[in-house]
Amino acid sequence: MAEIIDTRIEPDRAIERACAILSEGEPVAIPTETVYGLAADATNADAISHIYEMKGRPRFNPLICHVSDIAMAEKHVEFDPISRRLAEVFWPGPLTLILRQRPESTVHALASAGLDTLGIRMPDGFSRQVIARFGRPLAAPSANTSGKISPTSAAHVEADLGSKLKLILDAGPAQIGLESTIIKLDDRKLRLLRPGGLDVAEVEALTGLTVERSETAGAAIEAPGMLASHYAPGAAVRLNAEDVRQGEALIRFGGKPLPGESEAAIVLELSPAGNLREAAANLFDYMKKADASGAATIAFGPIPAEGLGEAIVDRLQRAAAPRAG
Ligand code: TXA
Ligand code: MG
């Protein structure tokens, strides 16, 4: 079973143990402000292959490399002026940039799945201190079995991967609760590969550029988070419910009761005041709670697809998508 160290109580021991295990080429679960990550030395092929094995993840999915500062990022990727500005303003934070990998970068091709680009981000929170001490980028997907809901607490990680892991660092619930926004710059055009914890409107306001949404989301597997049926709970998912059917779990938003709630297996409110930040932070935890209620279907009340709601609705549509075998 995994050892769990609370970083708020024993920060020094947490960093020491994490770095020792990472140096042995083993993954460690680390807290970031978006979701918990399954981190390994991005320069060590063996360490990276452990991530893919633990997650049961298809090898063609590239991983995000996490750095502690821009100087570390610069050793591995080439910044153009626009990406540099985005990094300066939004890092540390929930933004992943897809940039050309430098020929001299020591990040292993297994992390980038052989692409000539790297997904790179500087996370906020305790994980950044771990990376700074480790001194090399950490490749880290979300710390969950492939295709399942991302973990926003150490308890989520323990329930899913606790028997396979040596160490989980516990920094409390993730503040943002949604994975990072992924943006790629092509010919001075910004493309959104995955909506996430950073509102795209903030990127547009800073750069004065329009961020293009992919028309073919899910068709071209440029960011496999774009695959249909991702982030899936065990139960079926019904979106934009206007009422609740007997025995369903209900997850609603904005404090508005739906007809039939007294017949629901469980009723969870993402944000009574209709605050999308609060809703994002609660989303994955509530999906797990609704799943655990044993209901065969989780009904979601309507959620506006604006601002952070774009990422929330994206995750819900994937959760509701037809499942592969
Ligand atoms: O918030 C997050 O981004 C979390 C935390 C742990 O940092 N990480 C995360 O990683 O969500 P993961 O592996 O679940 O999702 C990474 C996404 C995938 O959809 C992958 O395809 C995309 O990033 N990606 C990584 N490198 C890429 C590249 N070079 N080109 C295009 N997409 C890339
Ligand atoms: Mg993931």
UniProtKB/TrEMBL annotation:
Keyword set, alphabetical order: ATP-binding, Cytoplasm, Nucleotide-binding, Nucleotidyltransferase, Transferase, tRNA processing
PANTHER family in alphabetical order: SUA5, THREONYLCARBAMOYL-AMP SYNTHASE
InterPro entries named among the record's database cross-references: DHBP_synth_RibB-like_a/b_dom, Sua5-like_dom, Sua5/YwlC_C, Sua5_C, T(6)A37_SUA5, TC-AMP_synthase_SUA5
Organism per entry: Sinorhizobium numidicum
Family stated for the protein in its record: Belongs to the SUA5 family.
MF term (GO), any: L-threonylcarbamoyladenylate synthase
Enzyme Commission identifier(s): 2.7.7.87
Domain called YrdC-like: residue spans: 12-198
Catalytic activity, as annotated: L-threonine + hydrogencarbonate + ATP = L-threonylcarbamoyladenylate + diphosphate + H2O
Protein origin, superkingdom: Bacteria
Main location: cytoplasm
Descriptive protein name: Threonylcarbamoyl-AMP synthase
Function: Required for the formation of a threonylcarbamoyl group on adenosine at position 37 (t(6)A37) in tRNAs that read codons beginning with adenine.
Location(s), subcellular: Cytoplasm
